[in-house]
Amino acid sequence: MDVDSEEYWAQRAIEREKEWHKKCQETIEKELARYYLASLGHIQTDIAALYGRFAKDNALSVEEARRLITGSEYRQWRMTIEEYIRQIKENGDKGLERELNVLAMRSRISRLDKLYSETLMELDALGHKVSETMTDFLTDAYKDNYYHGLFDIGKEIGLPASFAKVNRDDLTQVLRNRWSGMNYSQRIWKNQRLLVRTLKSEMMTAVHRGESIDAISKRVSQRVDVGISNARRLVRTELNYVENQSAMDGIKEAGMKYYRFSATLDRRTSATCRGHDGHVYPIGEYQPGSTAPPLHPNCRSTIAGSLYGPDKKKTGTRIARNDKGKTYYVPADMTYEEWYNKHIESTIIPTGNANWKTNEQGYVIVTKQIPKIIKHYRTATHAEPNSVVMHYGKPGPHEQMDYDFYDENGYLAMQIHCGNHLMPRKHKFGEFGEHAAHWEWTQKEGKWKGHPLPNTELTEKERRLVHDGIEFKRTQR
């Protein structure tokens, strides 16, 4: 078994997430939008019916509405409308005219209540359609991801002759899981109740202001658009939950004990997912919304099985995406922060400050030594933070030891050469030509560029740091 298998599983999980995200956009999201727009059409028809009868009377204020709803006057019709109109014309009775207007306004309010009840029934039917459609879609997504995930695992390490098939009861339990406090069905009805209350408020406000049919229809349309957006966000988030839950169930079925969190390497990735990228967790710590995706609405992060736990270094490559959505490959063990700093914009800056470890005598403790067999070592400008790399100069009787010192963020801060590189005229320093070259970093076009400053004599502290290198050079005489 090759360690690269883990990266293969991670890449396949990312590919499936992308595939199902696209399928989500092209199928269920469009279907849900059609449901909402159809309901909007029905509600707007009811609005037109409400206004059709009272088009001539559109001057009801909020204060009048409040008084009419709570007041005790004019609650019963004492005669027909025709009789009211006849008496008003004959007598010019302003009090009678006011009574008629109030009763007419009360009728409008009762009509609004009727409109609200019709809207309630329409959105109830809409809720059932949304719930049924999402259930079917998430069921298919779980099955597809579970079996494909097991297949990918089996290709690399094999699987038992018999493995668990998707059980209806277990699948129901997955869909009913209140991983974020509510399951998707409960969130659908919560969103529907919110939409109902909002539409009622909007319609009451519009009628009290005497707005036109077009104005109130526009109000309702805007709120339904919000409902569509909420439904789209919900189905995308629940899809991510189902994808990763099916992956976890496959990981358990295969007998693995760990899983690895993978964030998408592009600019859209949230700060929350960036912080989890590359982390390996025991399967017992799997918790959607905490140690596993989705960590937030519209989350795109994935998980994949890990055989070795958090201490095993990954090899191979992983997928990243540029601003145009094109994919390319980076080292498999590169985290999101490392990728962002290298390929997008560096947020880690060179400081020159470091905490290089020393022994009791103050001699530096080398963190990495380059073997002598490497004759032409090229100093790296970036390495592990606070590290010191020692390598040898030209082999032979004039061989010397050179040291590269890196700051707290991994930028090359200083080089100390314990000899003159066989160029005594150029390096007229110290006893053997030993000298230091401090590095200066400047930012150009969003990236940090470094270069060495002119060579200098070693300070007492620097000389003590490379004591072993100077003593080695002394033996070369």
The low-confidence parts are 53-73
Biggest sheet overview:
6 strands, mixed
Strands of the biggest beta sheet: in what spatial order?
6-7-8-9-10-11
Helical fraction equals: 40-55%
* Structural category: alpha+beta
Radius of gyration: 36 Å
Order of helical and strand elements? HHHHHHHHEHEEEEHEEEEEEHH
Mean pLDDT across all residues, rounded?
80
Broad shape:
elongated
Strand content: 5-15%
List the total number of helices: 12
Distance between the termini: 52 Å
Strand elements, count: 11
Can you walk me through this structure?
The chain contains twelve helices and eleven strands. With 477 residues, the chain is α+β, with helices and mostly antiparallel strands. Strand 8 and strand 9 (412-417) form a beta hairpin. Helix 2 runs antiparallel to helix 5 and helix 5 packs antiparallel against helix 7 (184-208). The radius of gyration is 36 Å and the shape is elongated. Residues 53-73 have low confidence and may be disordered.
Question: What's a quick, concise take on this entry?
Answer:
By secondary structure, this protein is of the alpha+beta class. The protein has helices at 4-26, 28-53, 62-70, 81-91, 94-157, 168-176, 184-208, 213-253, 271-276, 336-344, 460-465, 467-475; strands spanning 258-262, 280-282, 302-306, 317-321, 327-331, 368-369, 388-392, 401-406, 412-417, 435-444, 447-452.
Furnish the topology, listing elements before pairings.
Layout: H1 4-26, H2 28-53, H3 62-70, H4 81-91, H5 94-157, H6 168-176, H7 184-208, H8 213-253, E1 258-262, H9 271-276, E2 280-282, E3 302-306, E4 317-321, E5 327-331, H10 336-344, E6 368-369, E7 388-392, E8 401-406, E9 412-417, E10 435-444, E11 447-452, H11 460-465, H12 467-475
Parallel strand pairs: 6-7
Antiparallel strand pairs: 1-2, 1-3, 4-5, 7-8, 8-9, 9-10, 10-11
Helix pairs in contact: 1-5, 1-8, 2-5, 2-8, 4-5, 5-7, 5-8, 7-8
